[in-house]
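Slide 14.
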Amino acid sequence: MITRSPFHLVEFSPWPFIGSLRAFLITTGIISWFHAGNFYIISVGLALILLVIYAWWRDVTREATFIGFHTSNVIAGLRWGIILFITSELLFFVAFFWAFFHSSLIPNLEVGCTWPPIGIVAINPFSIPLLNTAVLLGRGVTVTWAHHRIILKRKKDTVMALTFTVALGVYFSYLQALEYSISSFAISDRIYGTTFYVATGFHGLHVLIGTIFLFICAIRCYKDQFSMHHHFGFEARAWYWHFVDVVWIFLYICIYWWGS
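Slide 15: predicted structure.
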């Protein structure tokens, strides 16, 4: 008698190989862009990113929604996978905070023994950063609202809540770009500029990724691909969204407010 495995055995797929090729092209493309002003290689890498994102998510959506490969055991494994992924992202940001506090708690002679360093005019934490904090808290509310609407099988409310969440995410990115454009210092302005832009910039990148995630979730919800008991695709992205929110709270308190 043949017994069916409760776990999904993934079939052969070209997307991991193409994804690794994309990573190689973007890395070499950035080097070529910085040293020779050549943008062609990185353009190919970015195009491959879009291809892999679309095709790989399409395959996973088919496996989960139409084929039924995502059993309870598979979903349990996916839950642990996203937990470990978020943990790795947390340690990623811990490194940035470590670098910031290493430089700010005991500033050396090269920065004038003061923090912010002499000649650096820090961004006012009660201007754009405070507004971005309010936008961020609003995003957390709307994505939680969407989660509850999915559980209650309210499709229209869920799509509306996700639309608000995506709009707030785009607005957050716009405000951060505006903040960078009016800032009086650059990433090359000693350790302060480096730690500030690397930490806040990578957070901004995570916001963009999370916004894309939830935009896809809104489309899937509109197409009735989520149910009250089977919506881990949205749930994982909501966890990621809340993680990004928590990181911003620490960024605001430590770098924007205390660090200024």
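Speaker note: Residues 70-258 form a domain with the Four Helix Bundle (Hemerythrin (Met), subunit A) fold (CATH 1.20.120.80).
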